Amino acid sequence: MKIEKSLLEDHQIKLSVEVDSDNFEKSKRRAARKISSKQRIPGFRPGKAPYEVIARQFGEGVIIEEAIDNLVDEMYPKLLDDADISPYGPGQLKEIKSLDPPQLEFVIPLAPEVDLGNYSELRLEYAIPEVTEEDVNQTIENLRARQAKTESVERAAEVGDILSISLEGRDTKAADDEAPVVKLEHTPVVIEPEDADIENEWPFPGFSTGLKGLSKNDDALFSHEYPEEFEQDETLKGKSIEFKVTVHEVRSRDLPELNEDFVKSLGGEYETVEDLREDARRHLESSTKEQYESDFENRLLDKIVESSAFRFPPQMVEDEIDALVDQFKNRLANEGWEMDTYLKANQKDEATLREEFRETAIRRIRRGLTIMEVAEKEGIKVSEREVQDEVQRTVEMVNSSFSERESRKILTEDFLRGLVSSAMRDALTSRTFLRLKAIAKGEDDVEEASSDEPAVDTPGSEDDTVEEVVESVETPAVPDEQQEETAEKDD
Fold first, then answer.
1. Residues 6 or more apart from 281 whose CB is under 8 A from it?
2. Which of 38, 180, 348, 408 would staple 352 via disulfide (CB 3.0–4.6 Å)?
């Protein structure tokens, strides 16, 4: 077998393979016997007809096609070894260039590669924002707002009122008959004061302030230009949107007094306003730290991605898009939509939707590859016990939320394998971020997994570990009568 390699620009490799003619002839003979064993030929027992008879009966082309399929199945694993290839996934036979001698051309996607930048020298300032008295006050005001009594009023809207509106947003560059980008019916909106923190107000900062002075049945138009880096809604990125608002109702709000009666009405162990303030501060400090940590990790990872070089095949992008489309379908289903209905309503087809996900898919691939490469370079591992404990916690949560029968339906072996792989990946990612944050803050190294416990490498590379963890998980036992029923069916 002679092999010529040619690296393609999209991180695939083309292999031109010349097969020994004798091997091809043997493969044709085996193919003919296989065909004759499945198809009746008058005068011959299955699989016993001479080659020439089979060729006359079914045609030489049918035999050659079967022979090529068999030959590819047999030679492909050796082909990868001889060519010293680490594939991302299955290759394709692209062309049969010749049959005498047989010359086959394969295109094979290569495993992704990452050249990391000098992440060990990366430094980022780490400073968790302080929770201020104003933040605490705003939290308490939000609690008061939830307990407010509302009343429909026949007057123009004022600051603090709740409006029920319909909202329709259209791309100013789109055709007149194109579906709106945003369409909401009877959505509540609180008119915020002008000095409120409106940075993250939706659909754009200052939107609610513009509703002040409107009355029931009034219409209004607003326009807003969204930047390319707008993250709140992918469909609005970089677009100029004209919003049409219709007011259906204006309701005034009467907020409860901030006193001990209000505090006690919230439940919990609050006795005084100060108790509430202290608890609000604790929660704010915890959530602020959690959000800052998440933002810090994202900024850190983005900087490493920017300084790194990536090579991955197009199949990897398509697989990631598949995952994004599946997630999107599940989200639609949870909201009571079917994919076909959504696509028709938005005048799209699935190909357009997939293209919209392409940039996100590539970003996710780069980030994921970066984490795995850092983990490998830093020698980061996860203990089996750590994975087992996380999986067992999830199993116990399922058991406590569902009946035994329902739990057994959920906790299948395939589900548990996926759960183990996910736990491995999450634990490895978490440890990798700990290491990266320590590096970025200029701190000493973080502790690794306990050395006296078996360690797990990157997810997907340790099939034995996955099986061991799956076997260690305690799931609801199948009742004896159900086992007997299953055995009877198998018999």
1. 131, 136
2. 348
**Is the pLDDT score of 459 beyond 90?**
no
Query: Would strands 240-254 and 455-456 be described as parallel, antiparallel, or unpaired?
Result: unpaired
**Distance between CA atoms of residues 111 and 312, nearest Å:** 7
By the 10 Å C-beta count (0-12 exposed, 13-18 middle, 19+ buried), 423 is classed as: buried
Backbone angles phi, psi at 107, to 5 degrees: -120, 125
409, 449, 462, 473, 474 from 420: Cα distances, Å: 17, 17, 11, 10, 13
List of E strands, 281-430: 309-311, 382-383
Query: Cβ distance 161 to 152 under 8 Å?
Result: no
Q: Enumerate the β-bridge partners of residue 181.
A: none
Residues in the chain: 491
Q: Which residues of 367-385 are buried (b: 16+ CB within 10 A; e: fewer)?
A: bebbbbbbbeebebbbbbe
Q: Against a cut of 0.85, is the pTM above it?
A: no
Distance CA 136, CA 290 (A): 17
DSSP, collapsed to helix, strand or coil, labels residue 337 as coil
CA distance linking residue 380 with residue 448, whole number of Å: 7
State how far the Cα of 157 lies from the Cα of 244, in Å rounded to an integer: 17
Give tens-digit pLDDT for 64-85. Answer: 998 898 888 888 888 899 889 9
Contact between 437 and 296 under an 8 Å Cβ cutoff? The reply is yes
